[in-house]
Amino acid sequence: SCTSPANPSGLCIVQVIDQDSLVGGASLFTYTSVVLPAPTLTGVLPPSGPTLGGSLMRLSGTNLVSGAQVTVGGVLATNVSVVSSVEITCTSPQLLPGVYTTSVQNVDGQVAALVSSFTAVAPPSITSVSPSSISNLGGTLITILGNNFQ
């Protein structure tokens, strides 16, 4: 016995392949459409992360099912795990700086979106340090100028 993976509706071929990669008989198998309740997306934490991606995201909603895909700004998130019907965890994708919509698409194609729910923040950059040289004894006030300091 085995557990079937999520799959679009329609015919597929079932084969048995043993440990020596020998293929046994093949048989037709039909996936039938199941109408799932529409998903909702009610929260995204954290609401921001670095443009390089890699942030652990926690999405809350309802009717979230195994096999769901998550996108942020249309870019697929990775490491998607449906914790329960009300929670998904995933890793944010690499994005340009900006504010993005987060979406969840269930295996039946239904989509839930939360507009302006994630902000990709550029990493900090330094444009100048003044003074450029100080004593190794410390105690000197240093001014650092740049962008995207938080």
Uncertain stretches of 5 or more adjacent residues: none
Tell me the number of helical segments per DSSP (H or I, 4 or more residues long): 0
Give Rg in angstroms: 24 Å
Mean pLDDT: 89
Describe the biggest sheet? 5 strands, mixed
**Helix/strand class:** mainly beta
Sheet-strand content, in percent, reads: over 45%
What string, H for helix and E for strand, traces the elements in order?
EEEEEEEEEEEEE
Distance between the termini: 54 Å
Shape: elongated
Helical content band? under 10%
Would you kindly provide a written description of the structure presented here, covering whatever features stand out?
The protein is built from no helices and 13 strands. It has 150 residues and is an all-beta fold. A 5-stranded mixed sheet has the order 4-11-10-6-7, with no helix packed on it. Strands 3-5-9-8 form a 4-stranded antiparallel sheet, with no helix packed on it.
Please give a quick description of this structure.
The protein is mostly beta strands.
What's the structural blueprint in terms of helices and strands?
Elements lengths: L9 E8 L5 E9 L8 E6 L2 E3 L5 E7 L6 E4 L2 E2 L1 E7 L2 E5 L6 E8 L5 E11 L3 E6 L12 E5 L3
Parallel strand pairs: 4-11
Antiparallel strand pairs: 1-2, 3-5, 5-9, 6-7, 6-10, 8-9, 10-11, 12-13
